[in-house]
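Q: How would the structure tokens look for this protein?
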Amino acid sequence: MTENTGADHLDATRDAYDAVAVQYTELFADGFGARPLDRAMIEALAGLVLQEGGGPVADLGCGPGHVTAYLHGLGVDAFGIDVSPAMVAIARSRHPQLRFEEGPMLGTGLGAGSLGGILAHYSLIHTPPAELPGVFTEFHRLLAPGGHVLIAFQSADGPVPPVTAYDHKVAPAHRWWPDALAALLREAGLTEVARLGRGPYEGERTPHAQLLARRPDVD
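A: Here is the predicted structure in token form.
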């Protein structure tokens, strides 16, 4: 697989999700309630953010906004950002009480230390592996001390290689060995708090994982 980087990667991801926005919403947004382990980790993120003072939470790669809305229902000041205009339009239509913006993960325009939390729910899978260290450095910049980030992704089968191309049905994607992704978080100054590994639900093809990390009070 030829890997897109920079603007090419963003353009390809944007176009792919614009083309399937309606079908994606029908398949995943309305089925989120059937994924209890995924919900449990999002509930943990919300609880930790509220415990630290309840700062805003950015759902980066929010898609049709269903997880943003779930966070909001847990009492969190949540908003969504997505590179796909079609996804943002659906999110605004389905959840008019919430804020959704169009844009990439890098270059959100948000200030340093402005977030109590970040959610990347199966959105980093489309980021070229070489760009992830820069993304995590930006997460560290955006989070206030004590802020948390939750990352959900399809997990690789073993440590060698630590990342593999994944035959995603929408856009080029990668699966990660959880230890390798956790190491990148540490290098960016984010400390792992918890992780979840699970087998595939019905209709899924691979194991899945989630990593929850925290920006320390003092770096």
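Helices lie at 6-29, 36-51, 66-73, 85-94, 132-142, 178-187.

The longest strand covers residues 143-154.

Upvote if useful.
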